[in-house]
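2024-03-11 09:14:02 INFO worker-7 job=invfold-0412 stage=load source=structure_tokens
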């Protein structure tokens, strides 16, 4: 009977050896999976950082454009006020406008209402 005992010991040893190899293989797969996951997470964080940096630069660029447009609006508004003042002062002295008082002002002040020959007339040299 000792023989059968030896054979069972041998069988247990081969099972434990096989089990040990399996555990080692599983452990290597876990380590590889963790490393792969760590690299993927690092790349993901890097992409998020790049996206945030890009959005920040785009935001700064849009803020600069917005400020420039606001300055342009302010300048154009001031220019409109100036031209309105010039036009109002001109209307009181313009003999051409006073003789055509039956024509609505929006018709008088369209670009077609002022041919180039009229613009150089004395009326516009006040």
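2024-03-11 09:14:09 INFO worker-7 stage=emit residues=126
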């Amino acid at each position: 009977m000792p023989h059968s005992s030896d054979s069972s010991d041998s069988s247990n040893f081969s099972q434990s050896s096989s089990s040990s190899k399996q555990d080692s293989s599983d452990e290597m797969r876990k380590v590889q999976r963790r490393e792969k996951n760590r690299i993927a997470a690092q790349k993901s964080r890097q992409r998020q950082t790049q996206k945030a940096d890009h959005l920040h630069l785009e935001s700064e660029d849009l803020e600069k454009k917005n400020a420039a447009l606001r300055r342009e609006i302010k300048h154009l508004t001031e220019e409109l006020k100036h031209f309105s003042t010039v036009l109002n002062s001109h209307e009181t002295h313009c003999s051409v406008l006073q003789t055509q008082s039956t024509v609505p002002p929006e018709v008088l002040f369209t670009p077609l209402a002022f041919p180039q020959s009229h613009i150089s007339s004395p009326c516009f040299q006040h």
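2024-03-11 09:14:09 INFO worker-7 stage=report msg="The longest helix spans residues 2-93."
2024-03-11 09:14:10 INFO worker-7 job finished
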